[in-house]
Amino acid sequence: MNTSFDSQPILSRSAKILIMGFVLYSILGYFVIIFGTPSLMEITKKSESPNFDFIFYSLFIVIVFIAGIICLLISGMVYLVDKKKGIRFAFPKNEQVNIKHQTIYSVIPFLDMYAAFKVKKFWIYVGIIYATGFIIYQIEESFFSIINPDSIIYPYSVIIYHIINIPVSMFIIRKFSEKWNRQYDNRDSDLIPTDKWN
Q1: Positive or negative CA dihedral for 23, 25, 27, 29?
Q2: 90 by DSSP, 3-state: which?
Q3: Is the pLDDT of residue 138 over 50?
Q4: What does DSSP assign to residue 69?
Q5: What is the domain partition of the chain in residue ranges?
Q6: How many CB atoms lie within 10 A of CB 130?
Q7: Rounded distance, CA 164 to CA 137, Å?
Q8: CA dihedral (72, 73, 77, 83) positive or negative
Q9: For 34-55, what is the mean pLDDT?
């Protein structure tokens, strides 16, 4: 039986804006991990005249940080407006998914979580990915400490993490998506409970 939510998009306006904020903070995080956190003291230590490259980097970090805060605030306000209209924050549709699209999503940060969300396996997927990431990090840390205890593992650890994690993510998303599609092979999608989360 169809519900009033069937006409609603998978992600509401507030959810999309919130994702934009998370993407901005992820970009910010990668730059801070690779290049470090800018500070006014570091500029004055290098020379009496300002280092324009460093100033540009510092300005970029500040702009991204502020843009992320703005996205979070707007997302919260839009969510309150949508809530009054009866629009859910996010609502996956009960229909088959495109395996090719799901596979492409699985190798792109954040879109992989969207792919898992579409087949109602978001929390299971996040748990697996975080557990995998923790294991990879521990192995990397042990490996680098044996080779050179004083070595800096960033950004090499990030590169290694993605090399290992992307095939894992792709395999999991494909399996979840194939299992999701199989339930529609022999029965009507309306028979699937819309609020059932696996």
Answers
A1: negative
A2: strand
A3: yes
A4: H
A5: 6-91, 93-185
A6: 10
A7: 11
A8: positive
A9: 56
